[in-house]
Backbone:
């Protein structure tokens, strides 16, 4: 299969001038010590529509004939591709129809409609939504805009790679969040043509990693299930076009756990003041989970920032738990006046914040004269958790 050329990506970049933004590059000093050198974040979460998807969508729709654009376009997406197609279609004067899963986050649904798309909610799974969109195109003549498996889409996404080489000329490793493979395939096409020494590494969620078995088999392999908070990269099977690019040009594909995905979202929010969705933060999760593996200078692409506020709250709580910022304790204390006050005073002196307290004097496991206290605390991290446990034990309380 013929791969996307550098010339095609450069042409896409000219086409996208005035349509997309050259997104900023942030220096992540807090990640430097994990990898022994500079780490930079390419902020595609600050791109128009909140992700890189507008690049590929605009390039693809612009490449249609006038007759094709008159028939309109159709797409299926849980959010980011939907918004990219909706905006690109509006800019190019084409009618867009977007199919989204029934449980698509309300902010993404509202944004897609706000960009001018006619939205249909269909299917509990993205595969069902995808089939509905394809059937709609066959029935109406609307052109189906694939989220990743088309040369024009890959060329558009490849413009991210050109910007990275200009912004960080000395880059040695580029990390790319990978679902279907359009972004990593495009970035690799651009980067390898100009700097073949730069390593391009795809990053997938452990619970939705179709590329490792596909690369091992030498052809796309379909996963039986995908279950990850990173819905933007939860793709069950690579496409033929994107797979060919990844197999030929991408140096490695690594996976990250749900725990590190949530920690990465929290780190971006706390330390970088950036709102990044779990899929967009997959590259930061790789930096956290695989310290010392990637040769610096490293550029990690933050591929998107469209996250439902309700999910963001859950992720923050999950990330704080994973990072040792919450401590749950059960203590045995003397059943006498002032015991609970003594426990809370000790916790207060140590600087831990009490989130919840449960005090019980009735339990078959308690000895006479004992009471049970369950504490939920907010701490500064794992070392602070240990400090609290040791202090309570030294104060005479039994940590169960």
Residues:
């Amino acid at each position: 299969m013929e791969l996307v050329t550098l010339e095609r990506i450069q042409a896409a970049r000219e086409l996208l001038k005035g349509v997309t933004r050259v997104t900023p590059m942030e220096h992540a000093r807090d990640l430097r010590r994990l990898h022994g050198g500079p780490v930079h974040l390419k902020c595609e979460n600050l791109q128009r529509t909140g992700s890189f998807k507008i690049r590929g969508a605009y390039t693809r729709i612009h490449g249609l004939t006038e007759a094709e654009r008159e028939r309109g376009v159709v797409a299926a997406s849980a959010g980011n591709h939907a918004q990219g197609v909706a905006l690109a279609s509006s800019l190019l004067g084409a009618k867009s129809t977007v199919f989204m899963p029934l449980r698509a986050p309300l902010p993404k649904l509202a944004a897609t409609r706000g960009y001018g798309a006619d939205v249909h909610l269909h299917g509990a799974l993205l595969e069902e939504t995808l089939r509905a969109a394809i059937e709609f195109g066959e029935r109406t003549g609307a052109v189906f805009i694939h989220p990743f498996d088309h040369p024009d889409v890959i060329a558009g996404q490849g413009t991210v790679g050109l910007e990275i080489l200009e912004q960080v000329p000395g880059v040695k490793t580029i990390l790319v969040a990978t679902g279907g493979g359009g972004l990593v395939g495009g970035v690799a096409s651009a980067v390898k043509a100009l700097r073949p020494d730069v390593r391009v590494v795809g990053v997938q969620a452990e619970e939705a990693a179709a590329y490792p078995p596909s690369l091992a088999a030498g052809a796309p392999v379909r996963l039986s299930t995908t279950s990850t908070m990173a819905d933007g990269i939860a793709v069950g099977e690579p496409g033929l076009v994107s797979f060919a690019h990844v197999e030929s040009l991408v140096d490695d594909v690594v996976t990250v756990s749900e725990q590190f995905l949530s920690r990465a979202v929290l780190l971006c929010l706390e330390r970088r003041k950036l709102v990044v969705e779990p899929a967009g933060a997959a590259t930061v999760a790789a930096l956290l989970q695989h310290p010392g593996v990637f040769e610096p200078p490293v550029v990690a692409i933050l591929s998107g920032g469209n996250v439902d506020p309700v999910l963001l709250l859950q992720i923050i709580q999950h990330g704080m738990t994973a990072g040792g910022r919450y401590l749950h304790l059960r203590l045995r204390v003397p059943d006498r006046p002032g015991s609970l006050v003594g426990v809370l005073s000790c916790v207060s002196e140590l600087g831990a914040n009490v989130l919840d307290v449960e005090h019980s004097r009735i339990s078959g496991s308690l000895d006479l004269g004992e009471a049970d206290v369950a504490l939920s605390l907010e701490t500064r991290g794992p070392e602070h958790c240990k400090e609290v446990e040791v202090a309570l034990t030294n104060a005479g309380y039994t940590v169960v």
The radius of gyration is 25 Å. The mean pLDDT is 93.
